[in-house]
Amino acid sequence: ALFVAFLAWLSRTVEITPALGGGKPVDSPSWAIGWWFVPIACLWKPYAVVRDVWKRLATASRRGGSELVLGWWLLLLGAPIAISVAGGTFDALPGGAVDATTFGYLFVAWGIVTGAAVLGFLVVSEIQARADERAAGLGFEQPLPTAEAPPSNGALGRPPGAVMAGAGAVGGTVPNVGPRHGAALQVASVRPSTCPSCGTGGIAGRSACQLCGFALV
Question: Which of 57-71, 173-187, 195-209 has the highest mean pLDDT?
Answer without folding.
Answer: 57-71
